[in-house]
Specification:
The protein is an alpha/beta fold. The protein has helices spanning about 5-10, 30-40, 75-90, 105-115, 145-155, 190-205, 215-230, 245-255, 260-265, 275-295, 305-315, and strands at about 15-20, 45-50, 55-60, 65-70, 90-95, 120-125, 175-180, 210, 235-240, 300.
């Protein structure tokens, strides 16, 4: 069953999905599997796994000069997706991104995924490199998610990127995309950002998952505007509980979302990370309950640095 089928399945229940990161290079799978063990009890619809392609780092040499090296901090997205699927029998959805990858790289990823019987994807552009002021596509790669979608569509149609036919086409990929209730940081305005989402839908995206947000009013307004523009695919809200004091300033900067005044006012009164974590859980529970009251059946949780908080939120909602 595809993720789209799971999302569109008629139910009155409260359903969840989770995002996890591949382990840092060399750290093994123990911590990741502990996260899945912790969250599997809530019967998630699917688990998605982020992708982190190579990036440049600078290391000082003995002579004092800086050496520029390309490294991958979190390799193994496809292998981790297969391991989760085989170990837990939970549908998996690896990210496939433009950033750091050529068209040929992506083609090999699609072949590997097919061999492993993984057919659900989240297609994303990915973040810009740290040293760049704007997103710069890898030479021989894609600039936009829509370009990536077209490649996957060609692959689904039985053709490699160079136009040659695939002799034994496998299972077709079903895919979702990202969307931004407070607009993507690089979009000039929300309307143009939503027009890009409409284009992704028209090219074949089955659903969209939002960037995290803390103000439900912005999500409701976004969905209403999307429907008025002819965007009909499910739009799954993405939630991440605040888990420590530093996130009050880090989260808005990193994810380009506002912290509502009510939450911010309570957060600045917190004296410890544990107080901030409890506040984050209470706010997330209230967010989710309101979303459910408005007819939302599926909520996606971002678990990084917040596994215990997400587990507590899920437990209180079931």
């Amino acid at each position: 069953m595809t993720v789209a089928d799971l999302i569109n399945r008629k139910t009155d229940g409260r359903r969840f999905s989770f995002e996890v990161l591949p382990p840092l290079k060399g750290t093994g799978t123990g911590r990741l599997f502990a996260t899945i063990d912790r969250l599997a009890e809530f019967d998630p619809m699917f688990v998605n796994i982020t992708t982190h392609h190579s990036e440049f780092v600078y290391r000082q040499m003995e002579n004092g000069l800086l050496q520029r090296r390309r490294i991958r901090r979190r390799p193994g997205t496809i292998a981790i997706a297969a391991a989760i699927q085989n170990k837990y029998h939970i549908p998996v959805q690896p990210h496939v991104i433009c950033s750091g990858a050529t068209v040929e790289d992506i083609e090999y990823e699609l072949l590997d995924l097919q061999f492993l019987n993984i057919s659900n994807l989240l297609l994303l552009r990915g973040d810009k490199a740290r040293e760049d002021s704007r997103f710069v596509p890898t030479p021989g790669g894609h600039e936009h998610t829509t370009d990536l979608i077209r490649q996957v569509n060609r692959f689904n149609g039985g053709f490699f990127a160079d136009g040659s036919p695939i002799k034994c086409p496998g299972t077709r990929f079903d895919y979702g995309v990202a969307c931004y209730p407070e607009k993507h940081e690089e979009a000039p305005n929300l309307e143009m950002d939503m027009a890009r989402l409409k284009e992704k839908q028209d090219l074949g995206a089955s659903y969209a998952v939002t960037q995290l947000f803390y103000d439900n009013a912005k999500y409701f307004a976004f969905v209403e505007k999307a429907r008025a523009m002819g965007i009909t695919i499910p739009i799954i809200p993405g939630i991440k509980p605040l888990a420590k004091l530093s996130q009050l300033t880090v989260v808005p900067k990193t994810f380009h979302c506002d912290i509502p005044m009510e939450l911010a006012a309570e957060a600045v009164r917190c004296k410890t990370d544990e107080e901030a974590r409890r506040l984050g859980v209470e706010w997330a529970v209230a967010q989710c309950k309101e979303l459910y009251r408005h007819g939302v059946h599926n909520i996606h949780f971002y678990t990084v640095s917040a596994v215990e908080s997400v587990a507590e939120v899920a437990r209180r909602l079931l």
